Amino acid sequence: MGLMKAKPAAQQMRRRSSGGRIDRTKPVTFTFDGRSYQGYEGDTLASALLANNVHLLGRSFKYHRPRGIVGSGSEEPNALIRLGRGAYAEPNLRATQIELYEGLYAESQNRTPSLKFDIGAVNSLLERFFPAGFYYKTFMWPASMWMTYEHVIRRAAGLGRVADDHNDPDRYEKAHVHCDVLVAGGGAAGLMAALHAGRSGARVILADEQNEFGGWLLAENDTRIEGVDANSWIAGMVADLAAMPEVTLLPRTTVFGYMDHNYLTLVERVTDHLAERPAHLPRQRLWKVRAGQTVLAQGAHERPLVFSGNDLPGVMLAGAVRHFINRFGVLPGNRAIVVTNNDDAYRTAISLNEAGANVVVADLRIGASGPLITAAKDAGIAVMAGHAVTLADGNHRVARVEISAVNEGATQITGDTVHMDCDLIAMSGGLSPAVHLHSQARGKLAWDDRTLCFKPSATHEASFNAGACNGSFDLGAALREGARAGVKAATAAGFKAFTSIETPALDTPKQSWRPLAAWKITNGEEPGRGPKAFVDFQNDVTASDVALAAREGFQSVEHLKRYTTMGMATDQGKTSNINALAILADALGSEIPEVGTTTFRMPYTPANIGAIAARDIGHLFDPTRLTRMDEWHRANGATFEHVGQWMRAWYYPQEGETMAEAVNREVLAARTTAGLLDASTLGKIDIRGPDAAEFLNRIYTNSWLRLGIGKCRYGLMLKDDGMIMDDGVTTRLAEDHFHMTTTTGGAAGVLDWMEEWLQTEWPDLKVYLTSVTEEWSVATLSGPNAAKILEAAGIDIDLGASSFPFMSMQEAHLGGLPVRIFRISFTGELSYEINVKARHGLALWTLLMKAGTDFGITPYGTEAMHVLRAEKGFIIVGQETDGSVTPPDLNMNWIVSDVKADFIGKRALARASMSYDDRKQLVGLMTTDSQRVIPEGAHAVIDPDQPMPMEMLGQVTSSYYSPNVGASIAMAMLKGGHSMLGSKVYFPMLDGDVIEAEIVEPMFFDAKGERING
Amino acid sequence: MASHQPDRGQRGLPGGKPKYSAFAIAKKAMNYHQDWQRAWRDAAPKDEYDVVIIGGGGHGLATAYYLAAVHGMANIAVIEKGWLGGGNTGRNTTIIRSNYLWDESAAIYEHALKLWEGMTQDLNYNVMFSQRGVLTIAHSEHELREMSRRVHAIRLNGIDSEILGPAEIKKFVPTINIDQSIRYPVMGGFLQKRGGTARHDAVAWGYARAADDLGVDIIQNCEVTALRRERSKITGIETTRGFIKTPRVGCVVAGHSSVIAAMADIRLPLASRPLQALVSEPIKPILDTVIMSNAVHMYISQSDKGEMVLGAGVDKYNSYAQRGSFPVPEHMLAAAVELFPVLSRLRMLRHWGGIVDTCPDASPIISKTDVEGLYFNCGWGTGGFKATPGSGHVFADLIANDRPNKIAAPYDLNRFRTGLLIDEHGAAGVAH
């Protein structure tokens, strides 16, 4: 490495001369930590780096120890890198899962200034002083220093850096699908399951996190199926599946979540592996799948062995080593030590030997025998039975190893220690089935004493486990189970599947799947001494940390996890869980199944937040609702405010006008001539059915049975706690037909509320509710000239007060448009709410503006609407009320029927506190300085000079300058307010100033209501 | 509130347990950490206690601790059916603040916040209480108005709070997106600088260790099966580890309060719903405060480990299962990306659910019952973690004196009869 110059290092010195599933005709140049390297198409970043003899890839979380590649897939705990540049950079990706492409740019993480010389590694020298949980025991004094300590800790922690440009330039999509059978995992068992389910005609999805189907078989060059090598068999299977029209193949797709009722979430990496990414494709796609049946065939993860120095670069899982040799044509080391408690690692030893490495096997078992062991010995591999690696040593890379003889069971060193030079250790502690999805779906786990792993047992979902993830590690068994699971799943999904299953003829090494129950290898020193032996590599949790936690009483698995952070790294404990349980069980004198396991939770592997958010961001985050008159408002300079999902015209400033000037002009116009408001956003609900009147009688506090047809009535609805929920005017269109209006923000909630009562409490009532908010456009014409403007616009009904009285509705034609006109008023002026079919909204608005031109008609927005209604003391639900206000609090007893048998909230209103004198009650306020407007939200006190906390009376709910009154007016909810008329109260401001005001009736204009008829 | 200081009682392990310190670590390191003692004894239940606390979460352990530290009681047991802190104590997003609208809420949460300030030293256990501020964002004119109301009330209650405009927010939180063209733009916010986060598990462990030091028996894997009464008076509890005689039982079991209450023929107005949270993979620091947004149902902070910690709104169905539905975190993550575009290229690492027990007014119950000697502390909804010390402190006072103090009194069960509710639905939004 030291000799390598900055020019592309073409040698790929660890690349074998042939073999592997890489395309040697397609060299790929990439950059790691500023240096240029070459690999081949088909490589992962990990395999390409290993081909270039790069083992040091990162620094660990806590001690900043040098770390390399341990695994070959999603279980990788160490080899986390930052991929890409600029806005495309992404931290914490596993080198073992990154497919190589031309120009790939990668950096190591968590090191300063460089990977080889990392200042943080000083932690490693002090590691004896940083046992698990040390931060709970220190940094306590002086108390004021914690934030400083913490600042340093935070900077030292974390892994990678986020992108320098925060705006993700990529696009993500979502797909929603139903299928009959979802197969998670496309190895031997998954392929068989998909094929057998697919043959039945069922809609099958086969998803696998890798770029190719085949799983572990891709690396087994010693296996022939149906007379062909494993890779050819896989190709045949995939071709068969691809030919089935109802089968969807999803490579590069991780099933990461398994929720109730067979709802699964998948993330597909669509273009991450491409150097040139087509613009029409999303980067990733989130699949949300509702599966009739699932087959879980995710395989298994190999476990490391726990010995001193087991975290050095060059110490790898045996299966991963085999994977790199056979699948990628890379020999990760020339002088290899294989250390194992099982047969399977012998296949790695044989592969290493075939690839030209010098191999020594240290087998923890004393009397192990079998065809694989014989084959290894026959190949000339030195096998040291009853031996363990007790120490790995080296600087940035394993260079030496200490091998010691152990007793039966490998619990003690029995002497006879040898040292050897090496550049690779391949370790194997047996296999752990990937039971994550099964467990996410609340499936139970059972410990298997024979194969020493947790296997799936009972499941709550329509689900089958097959192959290694079911604890069936033997290839023949996995193929059989996969086929059976496919047939069962398709049958359960209602398809006719062939029930006769042929097991493919197999030629594969025979081996035992019973490892020795030994994972932690003592180094002969007193517990806790000597170089550290790691359990959780990424979070730097050691065997002595686990023992310390147990010693301190953190003996529940959950406590262990939380105290040591074991299993909480980005690999989620795939390689560490069982080893930690074994050490904990050992410390407690217990057994693994008694110690138990933690709950597996979504996601199986970390899933991109961008893919989960996908297109539901930007303007698609939430619909923006616009009225049909919106175009006119925009063209005429309106400013807008958010009201729920709606954008409402707030005010219409003219050239050079401030907001206050514009609002004053609009408010004055509505009282001197006429104003026009876009009221289309009001909630509108069509209520029909023979029991409609009875229904309203229960929903509202007042009486509705005898409302005449064509008449309007104001109603208040309460929650069942007696508090005001919404209000509005409802009109009887026919005996069995009403038109209800609600507040703009409350419309959806009111509809939900009423449906809930109808469906769950009053199913006997024949009433049908339909939201018609968007069916109608509404323009409110208000002011003394309102009737004249309607006449100018061409109305075909008599607008006289006797023929069209207040609180009634008439159908008419206005300028030829069919309209419903409601004579109701939220301003106190003569007022008409004109409803037209929504599509005529803009026509209605322009018609009225034109007809009103000579009268000085003035469009007004929501701010002027607020001022106008406040001048009359009309409340706005959600402004004067906050879920704690009753009708009596607003002096609105008149609207609460005392003769009705019941209505929602009636019983609650009878509770003792509803009549307490110190309830907050609605009052008006006039400031002593009549030009000073109190900020809304300000709180009233009697004595502004009292100490904190102050005794507060309540808050200002609405506050404006009223040009019609010529003074500041406000409404407030004050404790005992109804009996405080004439009193002075004070409003302390945030800046220390105090505003004085007098409590008055909340009625500031036309107290007698004489203007309602124009 | 500002002038009131809680009585912290005996502080810093007066019972004689060896103290934690950098010095102790260095000393123990000499012997390779072989000499550390259990953080708390693995006590077996005795025949009789003066008080039994049911529930070994943060609130229950705090109650036992303050009974011992403030009220001088020693013959106390905390019984827990699983492992300490395994409920919502270990499942929340660790946000701490006291900037509540209603006086009653401000009183108890500020009482708690004062106890948080100094808890590490009181318990001789670093709970990593980090006062990095809690900033609540407003996204509409309506929310700005509500914010003004809240800040005026909070300030007159003597609690720190300040209003920030979008530019000030951007300065304080450089990663946030204040582009006014987004669907729900950042229009303003209010900040409580004394708010922040703490290490949730450490709170349970710290209280357990300090209570143990004062003689409290902490008994895990012990489930209550029945309450024994004579006339309308508690005489003891039946458990999976035998009968325990006691005249006073404090029940602090969140959603399962209804189950225990039913053993005494009491019905509680509680509904239990899933609340989901998740963390991203750890990254180098990008966010040094807590951000809450009620309008888009999202809250976010970054843990000391570097994980982005995100919480969502409550799932709308009742359930005791500690998981929720996918659309809730899905929507929350979209909201999070809107406000923090940098999250798009991060990955969700771990997701989990808790169960929040909520009263109709979204305020807790801290109350005596019609059964003499039986007390309940529950209904904390989404706000429980931040209240932990305050809740334990006033509940201990209630049990010790058999009458609520001024802070606890409004949370009496009787409020559901009188209607004197403390309605935090509108005021607190979905999330705490």
Q: Describe it for me?
A:
Chain A is α+β, with helices and mostly antiparallel strands. Among the domains of chain A are: about 1-165, Ubiquitin-like (UB roll) (Roll); about 170-300 and about 435-505, FAD/NAD(P)-binding domain; about 305-430, 3-Layer(bba) Sandwich (FAD/NAD(P)-binding domain); about 515-615, BFD-like [2Fe-2S]-binding domain (Arc Repressor Mutant, subunit A, Orthogonal Bundle), CATH 1.10.10; about 910-1000, Aminomethyltransferase beta-barrel domains (Elongation Factor Tu (Ef-tu), domain 3). In chain A, about 20% of the residues lie in helices and about 25% in strands. Chain A has 24 helices and 51 strands. In chain A, strands 8, 9, 12, 13, 14, 15 and 28 form a seven-stranded mixed β-sheet that branches. A six-stranded mixed β-sheet of chain A has the order 42-43-44-41-35-45. A six-stranded antiparallel β-sheet of chain A has the order 47-48-49-46-51-50. In chain A, a hairpin with a 6-residue loop joins strand 22 (about 400-405) and strand 23. In chain A, helix 12 (about 545-550) packs across helix 14 (about 575-590) and helix 18 (about 660-670) crosses helix 23. With about 425 residues, chain B is an alpha/beta fold. Chain B has twelve helices and 19 strands. Chain B has helices at about 20-30, 60-70, 105-115, 120-125, 140-155, 165-170, 200-215, 255-265, 325-340, 385-400, 415-420, 425-430; strands at about 50-55, 75-80, 95, 135-140, 160-165, 190, 195, 215-220, 225-230, 235-240, 240-245, 250, 270-280, 290-295, 300, 310-315, 345-360, 365-370, 375-380. In chain B, the strands form four sheets. An eight-stranded mixed β-sheet of chain B has the order 5-6-4-14-15-16-13-17. In chain B, strands 8-2-1-12-19-18 form a six-stranded mixed β-sheet, with helices on both faces. In chain B, a hairpin with a 2-residue loop joins strand 10 and strand 11 (about 240-245). In chain B, helix 2 (about 60-70) runs parallel beside helix 7 (about 200-215), helix 2 crosses helix 10 and helix 3 (about 105-115) crosses helix 10 (about 385-400). The two termini of chain B are about 20 Å apart. The relative contact order of chain B is 0.18. Mean pLDDT of chain B is about 95; it is low at about 425-430. Classes of the chains: A alpha+beta (about 1000), B alpha/beta (about 425). Chains A and B meet through strand 6, helix 3, helix 4, helix 12 and helix 13 of A and helix 1, helix 5, helix 7, helix 9 and strand 17 of B. Strand 32 (about 605-610) of chain A pairs antiparallel with strand 17 (about 345-360) of chain B, so a sheet runs across the interface.
